[in-house]
Structure formats: structure tokens, C-alpha cells
Amino acid sequence: MTTTQTTTNLEQLQYPIGRFAPKEDYSIEEVNRMIGLQETAPARYQKLLAGRSDEDLARTYREGSWTVQQLVHHIADIQLLNFLRLKKALTEDDYVITLVQMNDWAKTPDATTAPIDDSLLMFDGITRRFVYLWRTLDEQTQTKTYYHPSRQINLSLKQFLYMATWHVVHHQGHIELALGLQPSAFLGDGLSR
User: Fold this and answer.
1) Sign of the alpha-carbon dihedral angle for 84, 86, 89, 91
2) Taking the domains of the chain in order of start, what are their residue ranges?
3) pLDDT mean values, one per 10 residues, the chain (193 residues)
4) DinB-like domain location, by residue (predicted)?
5) Potential cystine with 60: which of 36, 65, 93, 185 (Cβ 3.0-4.6 Å)?
6) pTM of this structure
7) From CA 148, how far away is CA 155, in angstroms rounded?
8) Residues 176 and 16: beta-carbon distance below 8 Å
9) For residue 164, what are the contacts with CB-CB under 8 A and spacing of at least 6?
10) Burial classification of residue 6, based on how many CB atoms lie within 10 Å of its CB (0-12 exposed, 13-18 middle, 19 or more buried)
11) Is the domain defined by 23-178 classed in CATH 1.20.120.450?
12) Separation between Cα atoms, residue 90 and residue 112, nearest integer Å
């Protein structure tokens, strides 16, 4: 295998739906589509993970990656964080996004050994609140921005919605790869391969 093939394969494993690449703006239809993807994500995760064995949960999508179990806990953690980020962006002027040490979070005992059912339940409940809050926002509010220091960019709330949606589907792709499945290609509008 050539270096180019190895790099391409690694890229596909790391970014099964493509890299994070926000557009300048999103139409009402695109926003509604992302909200729909958010709303249905917990059910997709439940279906994907139903009846999985401990061996399945210990699988990884590439060498050195997080396990399926860690990914499930991570998605719940970050969905909670994204809900809090949304509320802070809505209620604080000049908000700078709250950052966390994701790799360190993935190593805590709850991320490595806790049953995934609690995180799936948490993911479902937080997503319901996230979607409910988002649907109350008028188009003007959706253009409000905040600063993301690690990406060194200002993001509008529409771009933030893209980031949150990309994140949920990105890790769904990782779980599908770890379980030997083809990653779903149901996104589009810059969210899929």
C-alpha cells in the first residue's frame, strides 16, 4: 500500500462523513434538515447499539481510536456540552465557547466502564431539549455569533448547529466502522462524503 493510499484510508476512517467544513450561511431548509437529523439521532444510535455485546463495545474504528463504548459516552457528554454552549451563546454577550479536554474525558471511569444505556438515555433527553430550544429561535437570533478559540473562528448559531449535527453523525460513522458496517451516507448539504 502506498503512502497516498494509507493517508486516504486514514482520512476516511477519521472522517467518515468528511471533515468539519461549515458554510458561510444555511438556508431555512438546511437548518430544518439539521434539526431533523438531531431529533432522530438518539433513535439511530439506539437501533445501531441494540443488543451489542461487551466485545462489540470494546471495538475500535482504527488503531488507537476510542472504543464504541467511549464513543457513546462521548456523544452524550458533548451533546450536553453543546446544549450548554447554545444556552450560553443565547444569554451571554461576547461568549467564547466552553472547551473541554475530550481525550481526557474519554479516559475517565464512566467513559470506559459505565453501561452505555445511561448515556443513550442522557443523549435522548438532552437532544429533545436542544431541538426544542433551537426551534424557538427566530432567524435573526440564529445569526448571533460566538468565538471558538481552538478553531480560531467566529461561528454563527447556524454554523454551531452544523457543528453539533456534524459531530453526532461523524461519531455515528465511527461506531458503524467499528462494528464492521458501512457508514451511513444520509447527510448531504456539505455533511456527507
Assistant:
1) negative
2) 23-178
3) 57 88 94 96 98 97 96 98 96 92 96 97 98 97 92 92 96 96 66 42
4) 39-175
5) 65
6) 0.91
7) 7
8) yes
9) 38, 79, 82, 130
10) exposed
11) yes
12) 33
